[in-house]
Every structure is written in structure tokens, then in C-alpha cells.
Amino acid sequence: MMQAILVFALSGCRIGEAADGPLVVGAFTEDFNGSAGSLPNPEHWAIDTGPSAVHGWERGSLQTYTDSPENIQLDGRGNLVITARKGADGFTSGRAVTRGKLEFGFGTISARIKFPTGQGIWPAFWMLGSNIDEVGWPECGEIDIMELINQADRYHVAVHAPGGDAEAKGPIVDLSREFHEYWVTRTENSIAIGVDGDVLKVFTPADLPPDSPWVFRDPMFVLLNVAVGGTWPGPPDESTVFPAAMIIDWLRFVPLG
User: Fold this and answer.
1) 153: helix, strand or coil
2) Could you tell me if 244 and 121 are in contact, meaning their C-beta atoms sit under 8 angstroms apart?
3) Domains in the chain: how many in total?
4) For position 235, what pLDDT does the model report?
5) What is the DSSP string of 93-148?
6) 35 CB neighbour count, 10 Å cutoff
7) Domain boundaries, position 37
8) Is residue 21 predicted with pLDDT exceeding 80?
9) What 8-state DSSP symbol labels residue 172?
10) Are the C-beta atoms of 23 and 105 separated by less than 8 Å?
11) What are 182-193's pLDDT values in tens digits?
């Protein structure tokens, strides 16, 4: 239930109090403006730190997330840069989340991103239900707006719910060569995911097993990260090039009209 509204002058959005966090009301834009080497706006973004196992969402990935500018920073040119690195003690990377800061209801979330690629490189633009602390995963719901696994010319999109998953994958232009706009439009009974002007998949309750509830009607938060290794992509090898950087130009939300 909305209890209060305040105005963010810089972003132009309004924030209402959802049951467990701030719900964006109206259009929102994050341009990642700021001085080089700084972290993104702390009113909008939290930075996860620690081994991937602490967060439990990435199936055995090898990186430790940090808030070091070596792994996550604004570049001073209007971009957020998340960089996976290989060091003497293993792999480090960055993950920015709007959890507890900004939550989004029905509408379109989009981001302009240039992805990294390579064996064992697992960049992702995704969403989780804001009630994850109360109900756990996958009861909270997960939307994978774009994941790349080992190669940049094959897309992976998916939804995860308590009773099962639905996914779409296939060939696509090399997404590491230039920026593209990745988006998801969420309504009460559909989730459409696309790149630029192309729709990759529209998920509906019919795509899930019959006994799976449709848990995508509640507020969700955004995650941006580069994982390394794990049971899905496998480990990096001698062909993998580090550092591997994911560059995000902007993130936008437009509510359903």
C-alpha cells in the first residue's frame, strides 16, 4: 500500500512506499552521470560485496564481488562500468542492484548496454521479486532480461517461478561489438522481452507448468552484474580475455499507460 510520496528532482520520478521498499511511480531515468571512479547514485543503487555463494543466485560462480573501482565505477562519461578481473587470488567483479532503493511495477524497464564475452564470462541484466527476503527464491520470481553464456552471438532470456521455468534462446548479432537496448515489458499476465526493436519472447502463465503460480505481479528490483564461471558457463580457460567489462549507458522505466 502506498503510504508516502516524495519527489526525486534529478531523476524526475516519484517514489511511493511499497510493502518492503520504494516503488517507482512514474517515469524514471538513470543516466549514470558522475565523476570517474565513483560509485553510482547510492539513493538508487546498492553494491553487493562478497563471494557469489553468499548471495546464492549464480550456481557456483567463481568471482568475489567488490565495491572497488577496479570492478565497478562510473567512467565520467555517463556510463556505469562493471569489470570482471583475474588476479593472483582468483576472480573479482561487480554487481549493482536497486534492492531496497528502487522497485518497479508494471511497465517497461530498458537499458542500453555493451556486453563482454568469453569462455566463462556470464554477464546479466535481470530482475528479482522485492519480496525475496520474505518468500525466498524462486517464490519471489526472476526475470532474466538478457544473459550471455560464453558467447555474445547467442541470447538467453527466461522467467523462473516456484513450479518451473520457461526460457528462450537462439542466435543473435554479436552483442559485444556495440551497444544495444535491452528491455522487458511486464503486465499482469505477460512478460515481453526484446532487444532494440525486436521481440525475442513473450512469456505468459501458459508457458509455465500447470501447477506453477504466476508470481510476477508484485514489485521487482533490477540487478546488473558480470559473473565468472559456474555450473552453467563452466570456468574460464586460456582463451578468456580479462578484464571483461559490461558498460551500461542508461536504465529507464516507463510505467504502463
Assistant:
1) coil
2) yes
3) 1
4) 96
5) E-EEE-TTT-BB-SEEEEEEEE---STTEEEEEEEEETTHHHH-TTTT-EEEEEE-
6) 9
7) 32-255
8) no
9) -
10) yes
11) 999 999 999 999
Residue 237 lies in a domain: yes
Are 127 and 251 within 8 A, CB to CB?
A: no
CA distance from start to end of the chain: 20
104/18 Cα distance (integer angstroms): 10
State which amino acid sits at residue 19.
Answer: A
The amino acid occupying position 87 is G
Is residue 25, in this structure, part of any structural domain at all?
Answer: no
Provide φ and ψ at 199, rounded to 5°: -85, 125
Portion of the chain with pLDDT greater than 90, in percent: 87
Asked whether residue 3 is assigned to any structural domain, the reply reads no
- Distance between CA atoms of 45 and 180, rounded to whole angstroms? 22
Q: Tell me the pairing of strands 90-93 and 64-65.
A: parallel
- Is 16 within a domain? no
Q: Which residue has the cell 527476503?
A: 133
pLDDT in tens, 166-180: 999 999 999 999 999
Residue at 166: amino acid letter? A
**Collapsed DSSP state (helix, strand, coil) of residue 186:** strand
